[in-house]
Design goal:
Blueprint lengths: L8 H6 L2 H36 L8 H12 L2 H21 L7 H24 L7 H15 L9 E8 L9 E9 L2 E10 L3 H21 L5 H12 L6 E9 L4 E7 L5 E4 L4 E4 L17 E5 L5 E5 L11 H12 L2 H4 L4 H7 L9 E8 L1
Antiparallel strand pairs: 1-10, 2-3, 3-4, 4-5, 5-8, 6-7, 6-9, 9-10
């Protein structure tokens, strides 16, 4: 599933009323000036210690200032702060003849820390953040992607679960799902999408597509969803910008469903009447490959006790193993749902995926009680 990490101390401080009021009053530019002034003051005090209280002030005390400045200052202001640090350490050593040992080592480390923190500041600047606010953006993006993938509360007699596990424990996944529940008639629509790439590299595209595809679910009829999604993805003009998807629409009053697939592994239908899982035959090219392609759909009915399972290729693919073998292995794990129930099956399928944690994995299980 998309990984939750604790908010940083700085992120928590932003929630305090006094901190929010100060941020609004000063504005981004004012905060930068304030931090720069504090950095200069800290540098002056440290310089005074190096000159006047030589035995008590180590050279390494300037390194902490470089880290502080790198965390909070934009690149332009950081250059000013770093210049002040260099002037301070060189003046203390050569002008005021501070003979404290370990100057060379401290000076080299200071230069390395400055270079590293400037690179970090430049990275933040590329995404338009100042200070250490970039973590809040990433947290917000991650949480938004997770909320978009939450399944709606279903009426009595129906249940569903989903799980999304990112490759190597990354915070973002190239696999995502979107869902909607219409009240009249009661229709559940779920689309499970696998964006090319994996982990953080595919996370930005997954975020964009999840918003667009989520809007399409309620804007177009089910039979037009994949065609519209294909047209949208084709307009993006991404290099290697394809995605596979499976889309299901279920009439909750009758159990009638239709499934369409775009280059995605086949959905599975457990029939309670005979106790077997059956693959739903659908097919079509991945989204974004062919323009104006009409995706065909397969219809069926979920009776009481039946279940429908959607999954991505990360669950069944592995080196030196065919997809058919991967599906057979998945069916073996999925078969336990007939005896112990379907709760937890989606997460279990992701945990026992053949490829381990090296690929994104996602699964959705919908069943009629």
């Amino acid at each position: 599933m998309i990984v939750d990490h604790e908010l940083t101390v700085e992120s928590r401080l932003r929630r305090l009323p006094a901190v929010r009021s100060a941020r609004r009053a000063l504005g981004p530019a004012g905060i930068q000036r304030l931090v720069l002034a504090l950095t200069v003051l800290w540098t002056v005090l440290t310089f005074y210690g190096l000159v006047v209280h030589e035995p008590l002030t180590p050279w390494a005390s300037l390194i902490g200032i470089a880290v502080f400045a790198g965390l909070f200052l934009a690149p332009r202001n950081l250059l000013i702060a770093d210049a002040g640090l260099l002037v301070a350490i060189l003046a203390a050593r050569f002008v005021f003849e501070n003979t404290k040992p370990a100057f060379t080592g401290a000076f080299v480390v200071l230069l390395l820390v400055m270079a590293l923190m400037f690179w970090v500041a430049r990275s933040r600047a590329r995404i338009g953040t100042q200070g250490i606010g970039g973590d809040k953006i990433l947290v917000d993006l991650r949480d938004r992607l997770r909320r978009m993938g939450e399944l709606p509360q279903l009426p009595a007699g129906w249940a569903a679960e989903s799980a999304v596990h990112s490759a190597n424990g990354d915070s973002f996944s190239g696999d995502f799902l979107v869902a909607s529940l219409d009240s009249g008639p009661q229709r559940l629509e779920v689309a499970l999408v696998d964006v090319s790439g994996k982990g953080t590299k595919a996370g930005t595209r997954a975020l964009l597509l999840s918003g667009a595809f989520g809007g399409l679910l309620s804007a177009v009829p089910p039979e037009e969803f994949l065609t519209s999604a294909n047209a949208f993805l084709g307009r993006q003009g991404w290099r290697e910008g394809f995605a596979t998807a499976v889309h299901v629409a279920i009439e909750l009053e009758t159990g009638a469903y239709s499934v369409g697939s775009a280059g995605h592994p086949p959905a599975l239908h457990l029939r309670h009447s005979n106790g077997s899982w059956q693959m739903i035959a659908t097919g079509g090219p991945p989204l974004g490959v062919l323009d104006d392609f009409s995706y065909r759909r397969t219809e069926g009915v979920l009776e009481r006790g039946d279940a429908l399972m959607l999954y991505t290729d990360g669950i069944i693919e592995a080196r030196e193993t065919s997809l058919d073998d991967g599906i057979d292995r998945l069916l073996g794990f999925a078969d336990r749902g007939r005896t112990v129930g379907f709760a937890g099956l989606a997460d279990h399928a992701c945990c026992v995926a053949r490829a381990g944690t090296s690929d994104d994995r996602a699964a959705v299980v919908i069943w009629r009680e």
